Amino acid sequence: MTLQHPREEIISPTQGAILVTGISGFIGRHVAASLAAAGYEVIGLTRNTDLPRETAGLCSRVVVGDLGHPTALKEALVGVAGVCHLAAYLPSDYADPSEAEACLSVNALGTLELARAALRSGVRRMVYASTASAYLPTSEPLTEESAVSPTGHAAWYQTSKVAAEFYLERLRDSDALSPVILRIASCYGPGMEARSVLARFVACAQRGESLQVFHGGRSQADFVHVLDVAQCFVSALSAGESGVYNAGSGCATTLLEMARAVKEVLGSSSPVRVLDAGNPVPAGLPPLSIAKAATAWGYAPMSLQSGLKTFTAAS
Question: By CB neighbour count within 10 A (0-12 exposed, 13-18 middle, 19+ buried), where does 280 fall?
Fold first, then answer.
């Protein structure tokens, strides 16, 4: 799905504040920091009453509430010129169909309510964090026109994120919303979940423990540094038309290649153990095409080696 009739909406730091929802999350914290560095006033909306001091210090104000609280949304949108929407419900078990209701309520309907509240406040530009994992796996690089088919392991979550995309498109057609949808690849960097594969590789390599790579290490993904993703949010506010944009690295990396790259960057002697070599390989995704973002914003993400150096230096 792509937005068929793009609208251009450019917001400079002098035009008003930027609301960041999900500001306490992994990507949200980096988006807030990048916006502040670019000169934007940042307002945060979060359910987390224990916002990290460093992030809270970037904000002119922080509103505690969620997407289902009209009063919180109205308060958060005062003085706002644009919205970076990263708040989301993340299931504890992505394979559990009983999580579908919560995913739809927060990720789809919550996005709709936020967008409608933004329009009532005179805000047209919304940059929305969607997921590249909703693409149908193919053997070719994925463009923004590639088929979306959220039927994999995390179907309930992915479906809710894609539903929100359709809601934003409808509001673009009917109410002059100017949405930018970022389909984000496998994001890594400082503050990522310790249980993620890449964070586990780094921790094991730093301790001198073996790096265990399952399924023969053949599963692949497009790994993109969180600072590059955060810059996409800033760019989407300051330049370009509405529409869908891929936010990836433009390269696919297997887990075995990733483990070896972590070892090389850290200069670690940890062995790499390849397990389950004969088992079926979980579906992975080819690289995302980043040509559209490169043309619109001059997007040039860092290489895997550079990104790992930045990540490990902060770990």
Answer: exposed
Per-residue model confidence (pLDDT) at position 281: 67
Phi, psi (rounded to 5 degrees) for 136: -75, 120
Superfamily (CATH) of domain 17-187+223-247 = NAD(P)-binding Rossmann-like Domain (3.40.50.720)
The CATH code of domain 192-221+251-285+302-314 reads 3.90.25.10
Provide the Cα torsion 68, 71, 72, 78; round to 10°: 130
Closest by alpha carbon to 216, among 270, 262, 281, 260? 281
Q: Cα(94)–Cα(92) distance, rounded to whole angstroms? A: 6
Residue spans of the domains in the chain: they are 17-187+223-247, 192-221+251-285+302-314
Q: What is the mean pLDDT of each run of 10 residues along the chain (315 residues)?
A: 61 93 97 98 93 94 93 96 97 94 97 97 97 90 95 92 97 92 97 94 96 90 97 93 96 96 96 82 84 97 96 87
| pTM score above 0.70 | yes
| Whole-number pLDDT of residue 284 | 78
Assess contact for 35 and 80: CB atoms under 8 A: no
Q: What Cα–Cα distance (Å) separates residue 283 from each residue in 23, 153, 154, 288?
A: 31, 9, 12, 15
